[in-house]
From TrEMBL:
It comes from Methylocaldum szegediense. This is Protein adenylyltransferase. Adenylyltransferase that mediates the addition of adenosine 5'-monophosphate (AMP) to specific residues of target proteins. One of its GO terms (molecular function) is nucleotidyltransferase activity. The keyword Magnesium does not apply. Signal peptide: none annotated. Homodimer. It comes from the Bacteria. Transmembrane segments: none annotated. It catalyses: L-tyrosyl-[protein] + ATP = O-(5'-adenylyl)-L-tyrosyl-[protein] + diphosphate; L-threonyl-[protein] + ATP = 3-O-(5'-adenylyl)-L-threonyl-[protein] + diphosphate. SUPFAM superfamilies: Fic-like.
Length: 389
């Protein structure tokens, strides 16, 4: 290996570009933590403090919800949609909810299975944390589920790559790439070093450590596909493993998607200039903004639930008890059919139809097919609280 290293001395803080036998230059990451150490100056300390407080408020707000796990389930779906959209999928949150409810929809995006896989991979990873720490093994298991029977499923799911990959405009060659991650023979040791960092004793604040780990994972790019999605999921897994969150409700894909170019530019500046502090400031700002948004969503859910509970009590008379049962179910599955209402509350089809009609009359449910048969109804005001723009 010809050590034709990039001249910029700042890059040595994150790693070095090294020319390979076939002529291209690949990046060899330095193990974490960076040397010289992270400079936690006044602006970075302020961003850290702000992010920490917002994260604590978010964790506390979840405990005020009557069904926090249902809130978490919707947030997992939202994250799956957004993280997958960054990688080019078209499916919306409503598409995912319809697919989960096993409602056949003409024109449902073909890539909805990729989003459903993301939901499954995320839930799998969170469950596995009970018996396995965040590690290369766990990351590989999550990756395998992410790519099962979908686009990229032929690219060795669950296996560290054995060939070179690169990042750049669609169709570019390796010599035209924006960034070339480490060669495949370097990847196992780079991942072992990352795992060692995650579980070593450190005086660095948790959010700083997680920000470093995310950037390092994206630089290693250990898989042939799915690196972005797994790297974003890694943030939440680490927050939950370290008990910074009691439930997995912080997902940064919305922040990264809205600032996609800045996100890529900051990661590249780490590699080219060793600009860890600029990246961490950007990352912490994301933790703050997304925590604020999620806390506000929790507040709005409480308000919506009380508003609709009061409306059902006041307007549905003897049907109010069944109405409350249906309302609570909608927080679990916000797209529903008359047949599901019938089975849920154990009434006849005409009675279920009548209850659904009352929900429509009062604006709780909206029919979304425009058909007379096989109709389905959405709890749209709830879905809209998780709107993914």
């Amino acid at each position: 290996m010809d050590k034709d290293m990039k001249a910029d001395s700042g890059a040595a803080r994150a790693g070095l570009y090294m020319r390979q036998l076939s002529g291209y230059r690949a990046f060899i990451p330095a193990p974490l933590p960076p040397v010289p150490p992270i400079r936690i100056n006044a602006p970075l300390m302020a961003a850290l403090s702000q992010a920490d407080r917002a994260l604590g408020r978010l964790d506390g707000s979840i405990h005020t919800l009557p069904h926090p796990d249902l809130f978490v389930a919707m947030y997992v779906r939202k994250e799956a949609v957004l993280s997958s959209q960054i990688e080019g999928t078209q499916s919306s949150l409503q598409d995912v909810l319809a697919a989960e409810a096993k409602i056949l929809t003409p024109g449902l995006p073909a890539d909805v299975d990729e989003v459903l896989n993301y939901v499954a991979a995320m839930n799998y990873g969170l469950d596995r944390l009970r018996e396995l720490p965040v590690s290369t093994r766990l990351i590989r298991e999550i990756h395998k589920r992410l790519l099962h029977n979908v686009r990229g499923g032929n690219l060795t799911p669950g296996e560290l790559r054995r060939t070179q990959n690169w990042i750049g405009p669609r169709g570019c060659t390796i010599n035209e790439a924006t960034f070339v991650p480490p060669p495949p023979d370097v990847v196992p040791q780079a991942m072992a070093d990352l795992e060692k960092f995650l579980h070593s004793e450190s005086d660095l604040p948790l959010l700083i450590r997680i920000g470093l780990a995310h950037a390092q994972f994206e630089t290693i790019h250990p898989f042939l596909d799915g690196n972005g999605r797994v790297g974003r999921l890694l943030i939440t897994l680490l927050l939950c493993e370290q008990k910074a969150l009691t439930r997995p409700v912080l997902y940064l894909s919305h922040y990264f998607k809205r600032r996609r170019q800045a996100y890529y530019d900051h990661l590249q500046a780490v590699r080219d200039e060793g600009a860890w502090e600029r990246w961490l400031h950007f990352f912490l700002r994301g933790v703050y903004e997304v925590s604020q948004q999620a806390t506000e969503t929790a507040r709005r859910i409480l308000s919506l639930r009380e508003q609709h509970r009061d409306l059902i009590t006041a307007e549905l008379g003897r049907s109010a008890a069944n109405g409350h049962r249906v309302l609570e179910y909608l927080y679990r599955s916000p797209i529903i059919t008359v047949a599901r209402v019938r089975d849920l509350i154990g009434v006849t089809s005409p009675a279920a139809n009548e209850l659904v009609a009352r929900f429509q009359e009062h604006g709780i449910l909206h029919e979304i097919t425009g058909q007379k048969r096989n109709r389905r109804f959405a709890y749209q005001s709830y879905i809209d609280l998780f709107h993914t723009d």
